[in-house]
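Fold this sequence, please.
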Amino acid sequence: MVGTKTTIEDMQEKIALSSKKIPKHIAIIVDGCEEYSEKNKKELNEIYSTEFLNIKNIIKISTKLDIPIITFHSRNKVNETEIDHLIEFFELLLKWNFITENQIKISVLGKWYDLPERLLEPIKKIISETKEYDKFFVNFCINYSGKEEILDACKLIAQQVKLEKITPDKIDKAAIKENIYSSYFLPPELMIITGSKKTTGGLLLWDSSETKIHFSNILWPEFGKHEFLKAIQYYQE
């Protein structure tokens, strides 16, 4: 992007973004699929396909805008139907040349290792195949809880104290950060919440105290480029 402004034409509306104030980390809560399904009398199977297509589109846009970190989180617990679609999604990511071309590292945060083995295989494979990439970072929170993330960090620190690797007086904010799932990422500067709920759902709970939150009021299947750019514009205000 050249200069201090970039103007993006979208849906016949010009959205002016400052190239000097593009967030380095955007977290997105993917919500509203069930509500959209009921509202439009469509099967959830079809909606899940749209859900993952939208995720891919946002990855493309964020890469174009040179946003280094994007984190996605669905509020819902993973059910059997969604497991099948997650398998399909990660298998598609493995075949998606865009990942390799743009050196995108894929990470999965949460207790995803407790999920069925048939889902673990493609997750492990995409993590392994992209582990050396370091230009862009895309995180998926699966089987994730912000409270559990902090609790697990406390357990790790307690273990370090027990082993006399650190003393209690050395426990500080940095120690917590070093032991949470997202220890190696900058805190999100912008959190976009889709759907009708007005809560963060505990996403990146430790890291989001200074995060600017944009409630889009848009159900995720209807969320696209225009809404994403509007959220960034809100962040820049």
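The domain at 5-144+188-231 is CATH 3.40.1180.10 (Undecaprenyl pyrophosphate synthetase). The CA atoms of residues 189 and 202 lie 15 Å apart.
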